Amino acid sequence: MNTPISFTCKFTLDKAHFNECYSQSNTVDKSANAYFKGAVLAAFGLLILLFTPINSYAAWFVVALGILEALAIYYSQPWWVLRQMLSRSSGSEVTLTIDEQGVLSESFYHNSRILWTDVSKITETEQGFVLSFTVGKNTSKSYLSKAYLSSSSQEYIMQKLNSLTSNT
Amino acid sequence: MKLLGSTTSPFVRRLRLYFAKLNVTDFEFIHLDIFANSEDRQLLTDNNPAQKVPALIDEGQCIYDSRVIFRYLSQKYQQTPLSWPQENLLTLIDAANDSLISLFILNRSGVETNEDKLFYNLQRERIEKTFLVLAEAVNKGEFEQWDYPAMCLYCLLDWVDFRQLYDFYSLDGLADFYQKYANETGIKESDPR
To answer: Distance between CA atoms of B140 and A18, rounded to whole angstroms?
Structure first.
């Protein structure tokens, strides 16, 4: 008789975890191109300020919008991490169970289950795995860090990744 | 799979809604009138000595109590288990439901429950307090998803409205919640009216 596959581990939702989670799973573009919109807004504001008789308050407002846009991109990670740190789940211990059905994460405030049948894509990153899955009509992502995954559980996820890749 | 229950019980209805959410159709709902029909009462007693609905018969086993049945179904269909705050909300909903049912059955038995007696006062106090806390929870966004706790709260409110037992419309949040989910899957089909 085959023994059911099940891996369990625990980790804490702390700042280090949130930072890793963001850096490994985030797709926000932080290249020079990402600042184009902010730069255009700021330049447009300056043009209004210097070369038109329009109220200078309106011009400075457009310049401020451009700066804000650039800051939002530059500080997107600390801003996201800060919001997670302020959530009530911050500091909670999470029990993660990976089995033949899927990935179950349980903490005091929040439980979630991702079924393998709902997972459409697994991406291996330098420090973990990003699971893309569908719930109803929405597509979401979940990050699993290799820091708390045993080598056997990582191998199991790689098997799932390979089976998804071979099916597509 | 057979679900023993009544069309009016809010504890049964929440499970019927849960079945609808899970899109499970291979179950039979058996309506029992345990107060007026002795055969129905016997059928329930044979399956659940506590003589309470709902009871779920599956694979030759009978499971009692809506909360336990929910856990059973949740595991069977690989659903996410409830978090501890959700379990707490469910306890509040059940507490209000139990107190309202006690007063309702006492009234039906000809007992005047408006009297200043310890038991009645405790029930009324519990109902007032739990409804206030549930309204606060709604306003904090604890019932944003149409999940099992939301189904339980909806069934409580609709049953209270149906039996005209408590005016929750004055509580900020609960009336909006009640309206918001009125068209969810299974609500119309399980309406006790």
So the answer is: 24
